[in-house]
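Lecture 7 notes: from sequence to structure.
We start with the chain below.
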Amino acid sequence: MNLLGIDTSFDDTAAAVVADGRTILSNVVSSRLELHEHFGGIVPEVAFREHVLRIQTVVEEALARANTPLDKLDAVAVTYGPGLLGSLMVGVSFARALAVGRGLPTVLVNHLEGHLYSPFLSDGAEPRFPHCAMIVSGGHTSLYRVEAWGKYTMLGNSRDDAAGEAFDKVAKFLGLGYPGGPIVDQYAQRAKAGLPDLPRPMLHSDDYDFSFSGLKTAVIARLVKAEKDRETIPAEDVCRGVLEAVVEVLTSKAMAAALDHGLSQLTLSGGVAANATLRDALAREAEKQGIEFLAAPRTLATDNAAMIAGVGWHLLSARGPSPLDQDVMARLPLGPRESHP
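Predicted structure tokens for the same chain:
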């Protein structure tokens, strides 16, 4: 069964064709990040306009690369949240028009659900249900217990800034550009020493939640004081200190969630999953505890439509088509929150 996947949840316009939930026939992502760099972040109106201009071309390219004409498609999967409302509306409207015109079923997919699925688009990667899953991106830092595709329990979540957002804000303060994640990683690799004594927010809290706003504030306060004292702190050392603090917290929380719930498989996905320091730290700790660790391929860590088509195949098989009157959702929690005593 060939599914066309479409994702326009944020700034990238993405389309992909995936066969039977696993075989990626094409995966096209069109990004115009340079249009947003001047503003230090994504401008919703600009993103909306670019999606409108690019969506048809991106879908046509995905079909051409997959050598799959429209009459060989079996369904259309599309992200309906969370994300920017205008951006989401472009993708969902296009997907529904195409599906209705061709008589195809449509399946609506939570963008985060796609990220949870992305580690299993690797060759030979198989889910062990239930398993522990971590999503780390610019907008989300969350831990889930995955019972099956379509059945999730949130174990922990970011209370304020997500990890990727903290990277963005530190990079912006340093004048290094946007997005911050890859830039912080690049600078950190060149550091002689990390910035010492940075806080590890909520490292020892009795839960699996995250908070990175305090880390960002501590870094900025340190840099402001250094400037007043006419002290020079290399940007490389700042980035390494921030990266080390974030990775320590993420690794500790992920391992605690997996071990406390008796889960033998841990996955990592989301844009920050491309970070080598984080991947290596989780892999080392998981191996020590006898936990299988799987990370999304770097090419699928950031937003893409292959993950939407992949998990969409499972959802369509289990639930059937989605209703045509479901609205897009800027906020869309994935599963209930685990209750704590």
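Points to note: The first strand starts at residue 2 and ends at 7. The chain has two domains: 2-117+301-319, 124-295.
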